[in-house]
Amino acid sequence: MGYVLSFICLFGVLILAACAGYTPVFDRGTNLVVEGEMATLSVSPLPRSLDEELKRLPRTVTTLVLDSEGGGPLPLAAATVIHRRDMTTIVRRRCRGGCALLFQAGTTRLLGRDAVLVYRLDRHGDINAYGLPDMDRNEAGDLIASMYYAYGLHPEIIRRAQSGPIELRGQQAVDLGAATRWGGLE
User: Fold this and answer.
1) Which whole-number Å values give the CA distances from 60 to 6, 11, 65, in the listed order?
2) pTM of the model
């Protein structure tokens, strides 16, 4: 009965996603593959946030595979849901901005051989890029930095990302707490 219910839930999410113009891909019923701008990562035609959508996924979905150049407001609540669900996050190619926050929230973080992570906490940019219009740049930057720190990112990367984008790849990403493992995902 549990498998039937999971299948029905997954099928419903796919139908809703098709109506919204974004098609998530489920791999073996355990992986949710999301690609594109963070603002368009929606699996529902209803105006729900990504964190609400993640909460609705069946427990059989344990892995989030990301490929995004960022864009849109940072999905702070979605990152919290990913972390609380002990999800594995995977980046095979690229992950910037809000995508990097979602990746970092994963309990196990796997990075493809040629993947690039880009962390940014620039306090001189547009505050709306943080998706926190009720906070000033410093408050928003401090909140995001504290989340990165709580999710295991090395304090030096957090400090450097406050001056501009920081790119991490391969073993360097593992050494600095961004990834738990790299390579072998292709």
Assistant:
1) 7, 13, 14
2) 0.77
